[in-house]
Write a structure and sequence with these properties.
The chain has nine helices and 16 strands. It is an alpha+beta fold. The chain folds into two domains: 154 residues, 2-Layer Sandwich (Ribosomal Protein S5, domain 2), CATH 3.30.230.10; 142 residues, GHMP kinase, C-terminal domain (Alpha-Beta Plaits). A five-stranded antiparallel sheet has the order 4-16-13-15-14. A four-stranded mixed sheet has the order 5-10-8-9, with helices on one face. It has a three-stranded antiparallel sheet with strand order 3-11-12. A hairpin with a 7-residue loop joins strand 11 and strand 12. Helix 6 packs antiparallel against helix 7. The longest helix is centred in the middle third of the chain and has 20 residues. The radius of gyration is 20 Å and the shape is globular. 45% of the residues are buried. The model has no long low-confidence stretch (mean pLDDT 93).
Length: 316
């Protein structure tokens, strides 16, 4: 069930409960090191401030200042005051395109910062720190099916990767460029201007609980219908913002309509969308071929097949 909206912008606290699955197939690899002030790194002074590069692009330091403050608060005396982090991150999927790159990225970055100082931390602590960078990143720390409740500072694992062996997610990548509006800005605009936002928040709790029950029962039809309801209501708040937030593309609508056609023909597939034009679909392993063939038939060039995957892992 969708995460959309914050109850506290400064602390990055979600206003609604959400249910997510961590996916094998969409990964971020982040290498984190500690650099002393004034020390040269890759031919430049990387010790002046904490630095992050994603797919070769330097991220403005102000974007991550609160995140690194949270890292230092959690680490305490484990890291020298004058030391600075330097991180290089690469995604196996398009960045800032509505495929949860910030979620995956901050989860990896949080875990990497603890590993860089050789400090072991509980996943709950890493989740809380990752949330400061991106609320949805709190979920990506864990594997399998995960919840982040409204008002929570960290996510909670719900079911492991083996809970539903036949469960599959199909991602239709429709546009690999960056979104016109960042999710954070779009959330703030929606909350401040949509007349339907309050109803979305109030309604989200019942939808969330129904989704958790359907997932526990491994009921693909019930889960699909609830998931579809959640994303459409979320976008309803965006469409009614002033000015409207509109991430959909003609290809997005084509995939949505194709999913409806498949369901009418007996194929269990339900779509969902996040803040971007890409469409994600849930189905079962036995129906993957039918879904992928249908997407190829309407011109979707890139499809990523995923199953529930692991959370953050540390390589040394």
């Amino acid at each position: 069930m969708k995460y959309w909206g914050k109850s506290d912008d400064e602390a990055n606290i979600p206003a609604v409960p959400s249910l997510a699955v961590t996916l094998a197939g969409l990964t971020t690899r982040t290498v984190v090191g500690i650099v002393a002030p004034g020390a040269a790194h890759d031919g430049a002074d990387r010790g002046a401030t904490d630095s992050v590069r994603v797919d070769g692009e330097v991220i403005p330091p102000d974007r991550n200042r609160k995140f690194f403050a949270a890292v230092r608060s959690a680490l305490g005396s484990s890291i020298p005051e004058d030391a600075r982090f330097h991180a290089e991150s690469r995604n196996s999927f398009p960045t800032a395109a509505g495929l949860a790159s910030s979620s995956s990225g901050f989860a990896a970055l949080a875990a990497g910062c603890f590993a860089a100082v050789r400090r072991e931390a509980e996943l709950g602590t890493i989740s809380s720190v990752a949330r400061v960078g991106s609320a949805s990143a709190a979920r990506s720390v864990f594997g399998g099916f995960v919840t982040l409740r409204s008002g929570a500072e960290k996510a909670e694992p719900l079911f492991g990767t083996d809970h539903w062996p036949d469960f599959r997610v199909v991602v239709a990548v429709l546009h690999e460029g960056k979104k016109d509006v960042a999710s954070r800005s779009a959330m703030r605009l929606t909350r401040d201007t949509s007349p339907f936002y309050r109803a979305w928040v109030d309604d989200s709790h019942g939808v969330f609980e129904a989704g958790v029950r359907a997932l526990a029962d491994r009921d693909i039809e019930r889960l699909g219908e609830i998931m579809r309801l959640s994303y459409l209501r979320m976008f309803g708040t965006m469409f009614s913002a002033d000015p409207p937030v509109f991430f959909w593309r003609p290809e997005s609508v084509a995939v949505i309509r194709e999913c409806a056609r498949l369901r009418a023909g007996g194929v269990p597939v339900w779509e969902t969308m996040d803040a971007g034009p890409q469409v994600k679909m849930i189905t079962t392993n036995g129906h993957l071929a039918a879904v992928k063939n249908a997407l190829a038939g309407i011109g979707v060039a890139r499809v990523i097949e995923c199953r529930p995957g692991a959370g953050v892992t540390i390589e040394t």
